[in-house]
Amino acid sequence: MVNLATGDDSGHEITRLELMQAVERVRDSTAAMQTMLADPDRNHPRPIEEFPLVEPARRRDCQYCPFLELCESELGGDAVTEFMHAGGV
Ligand code: SF4
Fold first, then answer.
1. For residue 89, what pLDDT is reported?
2. Could you report the per-residue pLDDT of 35-65, keeping only the tens digit for each?
3. DSSP letters of the chain?
4. Ligand 1 atom at minimal distance to the Cα of residue 61
5. Rounded CA Rg of the chain
6. Where are the domains of the chain?
7. Is residue 33 in contact with ligand 1, taking CB distance under 6 Å?
8. pLDDT at 6 exceeding the cut of 80
9. Closest listed residue to residue 83, CA positions, set 62, 66, 54
């Protein structure tokens, strides 16, 4: 990595082991994501009913979740706005 402001080069040589571990993490992550699909070949997800809402104690995290739009009606309408008006974040 080169710091563009100073020109300092703090290079890091990647070992074969690190590379193999990275490949394994990608494979594991891909396999985990594919378990969420009904049809991996077509990239079709399992039905939303198979993805229950988080328990109420953890719903403050919903405001940061990329899937909020999909859950919002089940969460009770404008759940994030309600949470923020109640003093959250
Ligand atoms: S908005 Fe995200 S965190 Fe909240 S219930 Fe839906 S999927 Fe889970």
1. 44
2. 999 999 999 999 999 999 999 999 989 989 9
3. -B-TTT--B---PPPHHHHHHHHHHHHHHHHHHHTTEEETTTTEEPPGGGSPPPPGGGGGGGGG-TTHHHHHHHHTSSHHHHHHHTT--
4. 3
5. 21
6. 1-44, 52-89
7. no
8. yes
9. 62
Tokens matching residue 89: 């974040």
CB atoms within 10 A of CB 24: 10
Q: Is the CB of 61 under 6 A from ligand 1?
A: yes
* C-beta 71 within 6 A of ligand 1: yes
> Measured between alpha carbons, how far is 31 from 46 in angstroms, rounded to an integer?
15
Cα-based angle 49, 65, 45 (whole degrees, multiple of 5): 35
Tokens of 47: 């039905």
